[in-house]
Write a structure and sequence with these properties.
By secondary structure, the protein is mostly helical. The chain is 77% helix and 0% strand. The chain has 19 helices and no strands. The model has no long low-confidence stretch (mean pLDDT 90). The structure holds 4-fluoro-L-phenylalanine (PFF). 4-fluoro-L-phenylalanine binds next to helix 1, helix 2, helix 5, helix 10 and helix 14.
């Protein structure tokens, strides 16, 4: 069967890597990773998170990029095409559709969270963060959210910037903007880490992030680490798939995946190394929760020399990181409207923007006017987060690895990944056994259907032996075959 011709391709060799890293590096790395590490107790959490990136994040990302490039289109169309080519049931396209919908839902609350970073860059300058305690800064944050015009205005700014860049196209909009935003972000981060290094409590920060305390390994922490691995690598939300669809044929899926995953992990760790020393140097608590960067950090900045400068630098960095992620969240929808319905990118971005603003308006109002409206115990902001990260991302991730690992004719993925025999066997092993089993556990636990604590040691040991035995049995002939081919 003839393969779909790409309509868009990244211009430079770095196009995909910068755009995908821009998608992956975002609020998840600089806002969420430090505070959940703080909540779950430091080094042990970091280790579990790294294990999840390796065991699930990397195989799923490779699969997603390969599906995107093979199908050359929006997530819905790309998955449908690959399923057709590989002889899988047409209903598999549902996985692509769900990823697109999940991406759009994430976008609806992500612009609101991103708007906090934009607003705080400004607040660092205009003196409104001049409070003298974490509680008082908590009050500033609440007051900001209580004012729908303020929250709405900043969110509108983020949405307009995002849509403007996406409307300009893959090369002239996305690639051009990430090619200066990402290096800029790296420089800002290094300056901040350098500053934290000289601030006196650097070793306390390092100890916190890297001292391993086995008693902190709990089922809850492992589940948080697993969920975060999905979110931080932008998996199963259409973003990586659509960016993969613009990847030129000659570039290695595995190599690009490793570069993006390593860059994303490095940024999370460096953000921790920039934030925790500053928190410790000022005698604040590392486990302040979601308010860590909006309540504790501004207080620390105030107490330091050149604090305003570094505060502005910090929040500007978070804003850029969030913007490049928001761009990736809208691209799949715009590409879909453009490709499927022939709507120009500018019109598609406008249409997507209208729907985005309507839904995110409700997410914004859930902090103020509609704060009392909490069907099922959650406001709309929390519902969007919960539905996507607890249900749609794990389901989409499992769907993709099962489609690629079991349902497609094997030459499709082998051809697209183009790995040496052992590498291919390893990928196959991960997507057939390791990733689905682990994602399945998170998923079931999230649903409250797991009656046991998934961290109890002997479950894991028995489970691992079982998986290895089955896998060995099933894969051995295949590996031999692959090696013989190679
Ligand atoms: N990876 C982004 C972050 O860590 O902030 C969030 C995200 C972006 C999730 C794009 C999903 C996505 F498709």
């Amino acid at each position: 069967m003839t393969r779909e011709k790409p309509k868009n391709l990244w211009l430079s060799r770095w196009g995909f890597i910068l755009a995908a890293t821009g998608s992956a590096v975002g609020l998840g790395n600089i806002w969420k990773f430090p505070y959940i590490t703080g909540e779950y107790g430091g080094g042990a959490f970091v280790l579990m998170y790294l294990a999840c990136i390796l065991a699930i994040g990397i195989p799923v990302m490779m699969t997603e990029i390969a599906l995107g490039r093979r199908g050359r289109g929006s997530p819905l169309d790309a998955v449908a095409r690959v399923a057709r080519e590989g002889g899988a049931h047409p209903l598999w396209r549902g996985v692509g559709l769900m990823a697109m919908v999940a991406g759009f839902m994430i976008l609806c609350f992500y612009v609101v969270a991103a708007s906090w970073a934009f607003a705080y860059t400004w607040k660092m300058l205009d003196g409104s963060l001049a409070a003298t305690s974490v509680e008082a800064l908590g009050g500033v944050f609440e007051a900001h959210n209580a004012n729908p015009w303020q929250l709405g205005g900043w969110s509108l700014l983020v949405a307009l910037l995002t849509l403007f860049i996406v409307a300009k196209g893959v090369q002239k909009g996305i690639e051009r903007s990430v090619s200066w935003m990402m290096p800029g972000l790296a420089v800002m981060l290094l300056i901040l880490v350098g500053y934290a290094y000289s601030s006196g409590s650097f070793s306390a920060g390092v100890d916190f992030l890297f001292t391993f305390d086995a008693s902190k390994i709990t089922g809850e922490a492992l589940l948080a680490a697993l969920g975060h691995a999905f979110f931080t690598l932008s998996l199963a939300s259409g973003a990586i798939l659509i960016y993969g669809s613009y990847l030129p044929d000659g570039q290695s899926v595995a190599r690009t995946t490793f570069v993006v995953a390593i860059a994303d992990t490095l940024v999370a760790l460096l953000a921790g190394l920039a934030i925790f020393p500053i928190i410790f140097a000022n005698g604040l608590s590392p486990s302040a929760g979601p308010g860590l960067i909006f309540m504790s950090l501004p207080l620390a900045f105030q107490q330091m020399p050149f604090g305003t400068f570094f505060g502005v630098l910090f929040f500007a960095m978070v804003s850029i990181a969030a913007l490049t992620s928001a761009i990736s969240l809208v691209e799949a929808t715009v590409a879909y409207l453009n490709e499927k319905h022939g709507i120009s990118r500018a019109k598609a971005a406008t249409g997507a923007g209208v729907v985005l603003l309507l839904i995110s308006l409700l997410a914004m109002l859930s902090f103020n006017v509609m704060a009392g409206w909490t069907p099922g115990g959650k406001n709309l902001f929390d519902w969007l987060d919960y539905l996507t990260s607890r249900w749609m991302m794990p389901l989409g991730g499992i769907g993709m690895v099962i489609l690629a690992g079991y349902c497609l004719r094997s030459e499709v993925m082998r051809d697209e990944l183009n790995l040496p025999p052992l590498g291919y066997a390893l990928w196959l092993f991960m997507v057939r056994y390791v990733s689905p089993v682990l994602i399945g556990i998170v998923f079931l636990h999230a649903l409250g259907w797991l009656g046991f604590d998934p961290i109890a040691k002997w479950y894991w040991i028995a489970g691992a032996i079982g998986v290895l035995a089955v896998a060995g049995e099933l894969l051995a002939p295949r590996v031999r075959q692959e090696l013989a081919r190679g």
